[in-house]
């Protein structure tokens, strides 16, 4: 069974990586898909985000990285993904994620949304939090892989 983990991943965090690693043990294949138009303004390009994820998941042979534009369920259908993977950090995430899962269900009954609860040490972590800390010159080495920390430092130096 193939699981699809869609998101903006701007940038990938250790919380994302934890979810990907856990999913890679549960599913034959995990596709991490970077949304091209997530409705958010991005710090990194789609190509940069894909490269960051590829480097962070190089140790996971059943994980592939791709990007998509349009509906998540259409990408899932085109790649024979029967599971849409989503992470839950807190109760506040649940309301939004439940709404998205139900909406996706109306668009495609073929894909089921599966929620994984984020590890406690990452329950506060979001890409926007990481960007804000990095933008203000704070430490992010405990929040992102080392290569992403370097990318953030370089990005905010410019």
- Largest sheet geometry: 5 strands, parallel
Query: If classified by CATH, what would the architecture be?
Result: 3-Layer(aba) Sandwich
Count of individual domains: 1
CATH level 1 name: Alpha Beta
Strand % is 15-25%
Order of helices and strands: EHEHEHEHEHH
Please give a structural write-up.
- The chain is an alpha/beta fold.
- The protein has six helices and five strands, in the order βαβαβαβαβαα.
- The chain has a five-stranded parallel beta sheet, sandwiched between helices.
- The longest helix is centred in the middle third of the chain and has 17 residues, at 91-107.
- The chain is globular.
How would you concisely characterize the structure shown here?
The chain is an alpha/beta fold and 158 residues long. It is built from six helices and five strands, in the order E-H-E-H-E-H-E-H-E-H-H. The longest helix has 17 residues.
């Amino acid at each position: 069974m193939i699981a699809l983990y869609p998101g903006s991943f701007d940038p990938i965090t250790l919380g994302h990586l934890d979810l990907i690693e856990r999913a890679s043990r549960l599913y034959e294949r995990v596709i991490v898909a970077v949304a091209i138009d997530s409705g958010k303004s991005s710090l990194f390009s789609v190509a940069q985000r894909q490269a960051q994820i590829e480097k962070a998941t190089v140790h996971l042979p059943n994980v592939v990285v791709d990007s998509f534009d349009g509906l998540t369920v259409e990408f899932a259908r085109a790649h024979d993904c029967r599971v849409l993977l989503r992470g839950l950090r807190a109760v506040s995430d649940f309301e939004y994620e439940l709404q998205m899962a139900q909406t996706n269900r109306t668009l495609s009954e073929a894909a089921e949304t599966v929620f994984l609860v984020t590890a406690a040490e990452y329950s506060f972590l979001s890409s926007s939090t990481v960007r804000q800390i990095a933008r203000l010159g704070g430490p992010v080495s405990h929040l992102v892989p080392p290569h992403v920390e370097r990318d953030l430092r370089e990005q905010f130096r410019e």
